[in-house]
Amino acid sequence: MITMFYISTLTLLICYIVMTLASLISKKTIFDREKNSPYECGFDPKGSARFPFSLRFFLIAVIFLIFDVEITLLLPLASIFNITKVFSWLFTSTLFLIILLLGLYYEWFQGALEWSK
Q1: For a tag site, which of 52, 62, 70, 104 has the least CB within 10 Å?
Q2: Tell me: the pLDDT tens digits for 93-114?
Q3: From which residue to which does any coiled coil extend (predicted)?
């Protein structure tokens, strides 16, 4: 029991020494503007809040969400291929992919119309 106490104490002491040396040796730049500013998605957080939001950034975020959901819904389709009938699996997966493609084309055309303005 005493051996475990000594090992624990030695381990904590070594950790404390290493952390103290690392904080003393490291270069700290307090006045670095990029590190001190918060990261906001695509716009300057220190400017006026009344500027319009970038539609291009919004459309990219929506397309990312669509494809993120698409992947989570397509993975189970691959795993149930052996369990279901081929025709029903093919019909379901084809219908799902057609709906996703129509949504992608709709978003793309809406974005193209907005960008052309």
Answers
A1: 52
A2: 899 889 888 887 887 777 677 6
A3: none
